[in-house]
Amino acid sequence: MTDAVPDWQEWYDAHAARLLLFARQWLPERADAEDAVQIGFVKFWRNRPRPAAADVPLLFAAVRSAALDLLRARTRRERRDTQAAGDRTTSWWDADTVADEERAAAVQAALGGLPIEQREVVTLRIWGGLTFADIARTLDANINTVTARFHSARAALALQIQEACRDATD
Amino acid sequence: MTRPIDEDAAIEAMLAALAPAAPSADLRRQVAAAVAAPAVATPSSLQWLGERLLWACGGAAAAIAASLVLAPSLAPREGPHLGAGPRTAPASIPATTPGQVQVAVPSLAAAPGASGDQDTNMKQPASAEQWPDTTSVAVTEEMVTWADGGVRFLDDRTPARILRRLAIERHRPAVGQEFRMPREDIILLPVALH
Q1: Domain end position, chosen among A90, A111, A138
Q2: B7 contacts on A by Cβ (under 8 Å)
């Protein structure tokens, strides 16, 4: 075995932001999404203390599972409507300029309008950097289904973003 | 409707240009603490099965123990009966109330050695001399059936399985005729609901 033992911080630094964005597809509040990332990451690391690059889909799958569990728990407690909306409006992306902020807001609104099945595929593909095969593995879905969802989501996003840009210029 | 490939690539590039927001520093600290903490052992499926089997065996052992303690042995036994219910009158009991006498006397009146007719004996209070020597009463038991009364809540909180054991006891006193007496034991077996 020539591979060095990977440090969890290495994996955390490489994937934490992407995992947080992924978790926010179910849990828009930042604190809730961070809880899901923590639970999923720790669970993944305990199961795979020496992960390989091929294990990245499992990491996303662990966070997805944690996010769904938290979402169910939150629904049971009926806390959704009582949560403050402040974190929900926080941008999901870093934006240094006003133009970036506007673009990020437009993408966030467009992404939020997609069905969750399409949102998770787009997030994993665009910002997670996974292949369609890896996405299918993460979601335990057929690769053709995943590909079709991505194409539909991309078309819908393009349309909505174009409309948002047109409204902004008018 | 088909879309130009350039347009698809452009939208993907525009989306990918957005960098996901970094998580808070608190998350890093919490993850570090959680990774460093020893993992809490979660029961595997085999452990889960073993625990359930342990509960089941424990319940069965408790039922057997309860039946051994509460039920008389199948072999004939000698001596006065110490269980519940008036089966034979103890020799040390003197003549007391008429109620007690009316319960005990009918079986004694049929004894060959008893003097006088039955009606007279029932009306007169029994004296200590009239009681037979019950130290030599032989009791055999014939088990009839077990009945499961299901699980009930005792005092609305504790679940317990109700087992009914029906048996026939044959009493063979040293003096007097043999008689049979039905016996029902009710066993409350605490159970755990999962």
Answers
A1: A90
A2: 158
Which residues in chain B are contacts of A104 at CB distance < 8 A? 18
To the question of pTM greater than 0.80 for the whole model, the response is no
To test the contact with chain B by mutation, choose from A34, A151, A159, A160 the residue with the greatest count of B C-beta atoms within 10 A, namely A34
pLDDT tens digits for range A55-102: 999 999 999 999 999 988 877 665 545 544 444 557 888 887 888 888
Q: DSSP of B153-176, one letter per residue? A: EETTTEEEEEEEEEEEEEEE-SSS
Q: How many CA atoms lie less than 13 Å away from B177 in the CB half-sphere?
A: 12
Phi and psi for B183 in degrees, rounded to 5? -140, 135
Joined together, the tokens standing for residue B123 give 């009306």
Q: Give the position of tokens 């809540």.
A: B153
| Residue of chain B whose Cα is closest to the Cα of A39 | B31
- Write the DSSP symbol of residue A88: G
Q: Is A37 on the interface with B (CB under 8 A)?
A: yes
Which chain A residue is nearest to residue B4, measuring alpha carbons? A155
- Backbone phi and psi for residue B185, each to the nearest 5 degrees, phi listed first: -105, 130
Each residue of A73-103: b (16+ CB within 10 Å) or e? ebeeeeeeeeeeeebeeeebbebeeeebeeb
Q: Do A42 and B27 touch (CB under 8 A)?
A: no
Angle at A66 between CA A15 and CA A4, to 5 degrees: 35
Which domain covers residue A120, as residue numbers? 95-170
| Span B73-119, pLDDT tens digits | 555 544 444 444 444 444 444 444 443 333 333 444 444 444 444 44
Nearest to A18 by CA among B146, B23, B144: B23
* Direct distance between the N- and C-terminal alpha carbons of chain A, in angstroms, rounded to an integer: 61
A75, A146: one domain:
no
Tokens of B113: 């050695």
In this structure, the answer to whether residues A110 and A167 fall within a common structural domain is yes
Last residue of a domain, one of A59, A90, A121: A90
